[in-house]
């Protein structure tokens, strides 16, 4: 299987939304009820705004033989106050890193993450972080991510 990574654009909106909802359904056991429509609409607003502004990069992993999408990912760029570990204040938040279950473990997730890290480095981003499922932690550690200690989330 030969995989290539394609950068998504606003012209890929339907595919972006389809894959975003696929990821959310798996992570959150989301069904197509009332919240589904609101989440879909809000994700479309997000993509339209942030792709146009250039502060989100999304991509798809494509099987070159079948031309089927087999994975996806994205990175959201934002600015925080500059600090010693991030002089520019620009950071990237990796999100939606996903590979279809039937081909997990062959390096597709790594290709997606490396594509997005390269995008961030090209922009001069010094700080990249993510939230991970248990299944993805070993991959992220292999790439060079460390667990973050001292972070909390308001309920």
Commentary on this structure:
The protein contains four helices and five strands; from the N terminus they run E-H-H-E-E-E-H-E-H. With 155 residues, the chain is α+β, with helices and mostly antiparallel strands. The chain has one domain (3-143): Aminopeptidase (3-Layer(aba) Sandwich). Strands 1-2-3-4-5 form a five-stranded mixed beta sheet, sandwiched between helices.
Brief digest:
The protein is of the alpha+beta class. It has helices spanning 13-28, 34-53, 108-122, 137-143; strands spanning 3-7, 56-63, 68-79, 90-99, 127-130. The protein contains four helices and five strands; from the N terminus they run E-H-H-E-E-E-H-E-H.
Shape call: globular
Count of individual domains: 1
The CATH architecture term is 3-Layer(aba) Sandwich
Biggest sheet strand order reads: 1-2-3-4-5
Distance between the termini: 43 Å
**Beta-strand residue percentage:** 25-35%
Mean pLDDT: 93
| Structural class label | alpha+beta
Poorly predicted residue ranges? none
């Amino acid at each position: 299987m030969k995989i290539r990574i394609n950068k998504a654009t606003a012209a890929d909106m339907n595919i972006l939304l389809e894959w975003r909802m696929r990821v959310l359904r798996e992570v959150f056991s989301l069904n197509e009820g009332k919240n589904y429509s609101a989440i879909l609409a809000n994700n479309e607003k997000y993509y339209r705004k942030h792709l146009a502004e250039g502060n989100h990069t999304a991509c798809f992993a494509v099987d070159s033989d079948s031309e089927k999408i087999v994975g996806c990912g994205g990175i959201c760029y934002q600015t925080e106050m500059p600090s010693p570990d991030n002089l520019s204040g620009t950071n990237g938040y990796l999100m939606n890193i996903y590979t279809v279950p039937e081909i997990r473990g062959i390096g597709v997730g790594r290709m997606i993450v490396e594509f997005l890290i390269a995008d961030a480095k090209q922009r001069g981003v010094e700080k990249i972080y993510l939230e991970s499922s248990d299944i993805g932690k070993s991959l992220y550690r292999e790439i060079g991510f460390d667990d973050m200690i001292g972070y909390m989330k308001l309920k």
